[in-house]
Design goal:
By secondary structure, the chain is of the alpha/beta class. Helix content is 26%, strand content 23%. It has a six-stranded mixed sheet. The chain has a six-stranded mixed sheet with strand order 10-15-14-13-11-12, sandwiched between helices. The radius of gyration is 25 Å and the shape is globular. The chain starts with 9 loop residues before the first helix and ends with a strand. It binds alpha-D-glucopyranose. The site of alpha-D-glucopyranose has 6 residues, from loops.
Amino acid sequence: MKYDIKNLTLDEKLGMLCGTDAWRISTANGKLPEVFLSDGPHGLRMHDKKDPSVVRFATAMPSLSTVANSWDVELARLDGSTIADDCIDNEADVLLAPGVNIKRTPLCGRNFEYFSEDPYLAGSMGKAFIEGVQSKGIGTSLKHYCANNREYDRNSQTSEVDKRTLYEIYLRPFEIAIEAKPWTVMCSYNPINGILASENKKLLKDVLRNDLGFDGMVVSDWGAVRDSARSAKACLDLCMPHNPNALTQLRRALDEGWLTEADVDECVQNILALIEKTQNGDKKTTTTKEERHDIAVKIARECAVLLKNEDNILPLKGGKIIVGGHFHDIPLVGGGGSSTVRTAYNFRPIETEIAERLGDKAEIIPTKYSAWTMNPAIHFMKDFVEDAYSCDAVVVTVGTGYLVESEDFDRTSIRLHPSHEDLILNLAAANENVIVVLHAGSAIDMSPWIDKVKAVLLVGIAGEAGNEAAADILCGRCCPSGKLSETFPLSIYDTPTGLERGNGFYERYSEGVLVGYRWYDTMGYDVLFPFGYGLSYADFEYSDIELTKCGETDYEVSFNVTNVSDVDAKEIAQIYVKDVFTTVERPEKELVAFEKLSLAAGETKRVSAKLGFRAFAYYNTSLDAWHIDNGDFEILVGASSRDIRLKAKLRIELPYGEQYSTR
Ligand code: GLC
């Protein structure tokens, strides 16, 4: 170890257990280098080191919920490494990201910061993001550990989760992402089964370190520590931000004897190890600020999901097209709260982007209607609708907004704001060719208007590149290739929790492992758009599935995907496993592998995936281990969770005593 704990006095060690301000770790009276922690998952949000009232400019990347719609781990890695360049330029040492909390209810205000309702997809994308950031010598903070799935009363409402659900759903993304060796894990605000995350030694040490294999430093969420001594005793290493009472709390606990210097040293050693990691000399940016924006466009293009395209109205062919709406001039760059990025990018309205791409094939009619003209919106809407009547097509941009999707509060509905719905409905009454560009980081109930429009392109919360990426796809410069990383239900009442949100003291996760598509598919609910769904300008065929047995619980599944159209495109092939006859409640299917393929027109590629023990196992709390019930299983290959194209069957017959594994 480069920094020897023996050189620190007890007071210096106690001072290390809490930050010196909002973002810095203690330097132990100058004996240690300064380490600066900074948000966030969608780009660097950093308060200037000299003038904290100033937030530095950085590249606003797409939200993680949007990146998840790419289903492309290489893209998540690129996202992380690009943000890391802004960290290097601004001398931030640890990026407080990614969040891998599961999207348990579409109402959670912070869903835009999280990848998915599925633990395997969330963990895989989070792992790649961490690898990307840390490849540049910048640390990460895998958050928020754990079962932080609402913003409502997040500081006090306990998440009451049974052990099997914890391991299979809420810990699983952390388990997968920890394979990337994040330098830190951030504990969440909420209690889990009655004990604050920041004081939950079972979760912070036994589970996180012994079961999930984490070996870095644990930092609290900002303000999540009630008592620094109780947190230190629970193996939470660093309390952030600075807590003026920390030293008093720690000294009192040492004097009373229930906290020992050995406990303090265990935390300090983890902090020293982090500091040492930050002191690697090879932090070099590989992109310019302009290149970072271009990467933001590239990522946003890969994440957009084409949800509807009736009569193949997209890509736009030309003619007289009116373009407007709430986000036509400034896209929804980010959601609200600590992930907000201050971008200096000079946006162009989407109508300008479209006009540039269509050239003299189209006459683009701009409107004055915009979110920023909300008050006089009625007469602007009237103009917009009247002008739309004589056009060949209408492009309207709507969505949620940072006052709807934000940290600190949840949504109370998954419908769009009435002014957005009214705009769509009035335009649809005036013109039969309405194309909706949707800016949102979580599921939207589109029931009032989805049947009245010809196309819907979900851009997500796409950062500073939202308008360019949307225009590229609308005008056919690239083929849409994103697929939903969360189910869009027909109604909030079809979700496992409906409008429920707990009673302020606790919320029982009574749906258990049936989260997201696991719920809708097992309960047999129709949905608006299923998990893993997304259209393309191309069509794909799946064929020739083969299943090779490599071991009692090791199989290799392979199959062909062919682009049967005349446009180059990308397809996301998904592999699910179904336990045909189960002795415990299991979801109808579970995602175990996926791959995004780039296919030229007419091209065929073969996909191959290896499935091991964990692809078939569930967490058995009688054994405290992952366990496989002997019996039949089906391998389901799909273009979405509800568009299964190929199937294969297998039977597992393990001898007694080999049906379980602790990992
Ligand atoms: C916030 C968030 C966390 C963020 C931290 C620092 O409350 O919960 O994600 O990294 O505090 O801003």
